């Protein structure tokens, strides 16, 4: 009965949280605390093995652990009701503590956990009452029908079943409410004052199976510390620029949209992307030049760090010199011709070409504080990651898939390559079975900050083959074969896949 009473509490709390602060739902609050406390190495392992499913798996694990812990409640309650109730209350307190310790949490954050505790204890009292109450038929029937205790326990099973179904229904209702609140806002974005050149047709149609030149927003990778998607109302949103500035400023969404917009094609890359990994995507971004915003506040010469804060109080740091060196850094409001999807930072996020997302791409940004690295350290800095991390030049094989079985004869390998800070992709080379590096064909360019598609025909003979690719940037540098793990400043190495031909 423990898991059922615990589950009922969690379900009720999730629904209450859905109407108030979704992040304060006990399962999400505990999950977020786990994320923040997890050692970097374990987090990297989880991202590498579970990929984008890491959030689902975490929420599921928290749920399972809580339900397992609450199995102890049944035996405790049978010894004495108070023991069981105390155990449930203790679990609720842990959840409340997690919710209250979230950055930016208010006292209201404890409410859903409180509800969880009350509902769970009430359910426990109810179930124990049903089990204990004497049944109306207190004698065994002539044909050996159920006796008192058997009837009572059958009744308990029915009650438990109803409660379990209620728990699931409440939790699902919470999920639906959160989903409805997260519907996209209807915003009309202004046209760019400084538009990007027409987006070239990639080789999507001519090389079947190649990664699309532009990543659709709903297929764009997502990496962040949030378990749910923050729902930020553009009407209540503003961006503060403060710290070492001549005059702190606050800019509303409406004011931001009234500023001149630039439009750029930029490839976003995650530092956690391993060689050949999926955490990279190309999109067209619309936003206000970061320096236009910073100039309004007047950045002091002492500042060396832009500490950006999101709605949760999560922080990302960017070196001032890199953010203001003339690259197309922006506070973006649009992605691929539409307002930012909530998962990608609505109403506004930073996009800075050439820097890994964890030091540049703050989603749901609310504040830019000009400060120094000596004075303040950001979320990932506290976890040992680099503070200065340009995106390493890299290339990826997307076709054929590793370990694919191919037909002998003419085959095509292909993929994408990027070299944002280094004069773009000048050349991609491929090597079959460790043989000489030969030039691949390149797709069109959408600027140096954007990835490029490539493909190379090769002749497949029966047997097992290894295929490798590497990029050479506009400065003549060749992608290094030296392997490095993502931590602390990005992976390097040449991707090699094995395929069989039969
Ligand atoms: N608020 C916030 N912004 C964030 C993050 C985060 O955890 N919280 N993650 C960053 C990281 S590590 C990356 S790689 C990019 C990913 O952006 P995307 O999810 O839109 O692809 O967002 C960055 N911005
Ligand atoms: Mo990242």
Structure description:
It contains 11 helices and 19 strands. It has a 5-stranded mixed beta sheet with strand order 2-1-10-5-6. Strands 3, 4, 7, 8 and 9 form a 5-stranded antiparallel beta sheet that branches. It has 3 domains: about 1-180, no CATH class; about 215-385, Oxidoreductase, molybdopterin-binding domain (Sulfite Oxidase, Chain A, domain 2, Alpha-Beta Complex); about 395-500, Immunoglobulin-like, CATH 2.60.40.650. It has helices at about 1-20, 25-35, 40-50, 55-70, 75-80, 80-100, 110-130, 150-180, 255-260, 290-295, 320-325, and strands at about 240-245, 250, 260-270, 280-290, 305-310, 315-320, 330-335, 340, 350, 365-370, 395-400, 405, 410-420, 425-430, 440, 440, 450-460, 465-475, 495-500. The protein is of the alpha+beta class and about 500 residues long. It is globular. Molybdenum atom binds next to loops. The site of molybdenum atom (MO) has 7 residues, from loops.
């Amino acid at each position: 009965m423990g898991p059922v009473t615990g589950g009922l509490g969690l379900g009720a709390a999730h629904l209450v949280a859905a109407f108030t602060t979704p992040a304060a739902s006990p399962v999400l609050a505990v999950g977020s605390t786990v994320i923040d406390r997890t050692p970097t190495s374990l987090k990297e392992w989880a991202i590498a093995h579970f990929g984008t499913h890491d959030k689902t798996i975490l929420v599921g694990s928290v749920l399972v652990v809580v339900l397992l812990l609450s199995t102890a409640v049944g035996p405790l309650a049978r010894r004495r009701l108070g023991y069981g109730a105390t155990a449930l209350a203790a679990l609720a307190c842990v959840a409340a503590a997690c919710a209250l310790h979230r950055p930016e949490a208010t006292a209201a954050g404890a409410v859903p956990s409180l509800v969880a505790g009350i509902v769970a204890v009430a359910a426990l009292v109810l179930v124990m009452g049903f089990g204990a109450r004497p049944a109306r038929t207190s004698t065994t029937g002539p044909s050996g029908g159920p006796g008192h205790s058997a009837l009572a326990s059958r009744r308990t099973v029915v009650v438990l079943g109803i409660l379990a179904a209620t728990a699931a229904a409440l939790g699902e209702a919470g999920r639906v409410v959160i989903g409805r609140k997260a519907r996209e806002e209807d915003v009309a974005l202004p046209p760019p004052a400084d538009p990007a050149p027409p987006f070239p047709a990639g080789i999507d149609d001519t090389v079947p199976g190649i990664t699309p030149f532009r990543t659709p927003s709903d297929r764009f990778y997502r990496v962040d510390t949030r378990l749910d998607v923050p729902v930020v109302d553009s009407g209540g949103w503003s961006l503060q620029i403060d710290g070492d500035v001549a005059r702190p400023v606050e800019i509303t969404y409406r004011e931001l949209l009234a500023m001149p917009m630039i439009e750029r094609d930029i490839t976003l890359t995650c530092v956690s992307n391993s060689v050949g990994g999926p955490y990279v995507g190309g999109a067209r971004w619309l936003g206000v030049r970061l320096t236009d915003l910073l100039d309004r506040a007047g950045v002091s010469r002492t500042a060396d760090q832009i500490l950006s804060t999101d709605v949760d109080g999560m922080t990302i740091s960017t070196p001032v010199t890199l953010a203001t060196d003339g690259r197309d850094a922006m506070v973006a409001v649009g992605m691929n011709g539409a307002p930012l999807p909530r998962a990608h930072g609505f109403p506004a996020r930073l996009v800075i070409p050439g820097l890994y997302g964890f030091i540049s791409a703050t989603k749901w940004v609310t504040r830019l504080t000009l400060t120094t690295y000596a004075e303040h350290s950001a979320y990932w800095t506290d976890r040992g990651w680099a503070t200065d991390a340009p995106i390493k030049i890299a290339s990826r094989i997307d076709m054929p898939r590793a370990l694919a079985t191919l037909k002998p004869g003419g085959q095509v390998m292909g993929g994408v390559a990027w070299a944002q800070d280094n004069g773009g992709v000048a050349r991609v080379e491929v090597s079959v079975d460790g043989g000489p590096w030969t030039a691949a064909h390149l797709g069109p360019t959408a600027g140096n900050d954007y990835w490029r598609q490539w493909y190379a025909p090769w002749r497949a003979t029966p047997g097992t083959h290894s295929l490798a690719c590497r990029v050479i940037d506009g400065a003549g540098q060749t992608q290094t074969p030296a392997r490095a793990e993502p931590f602390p400043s990005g992976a390097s190495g040449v991707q090699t896949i094995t395929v069989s031909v039969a």
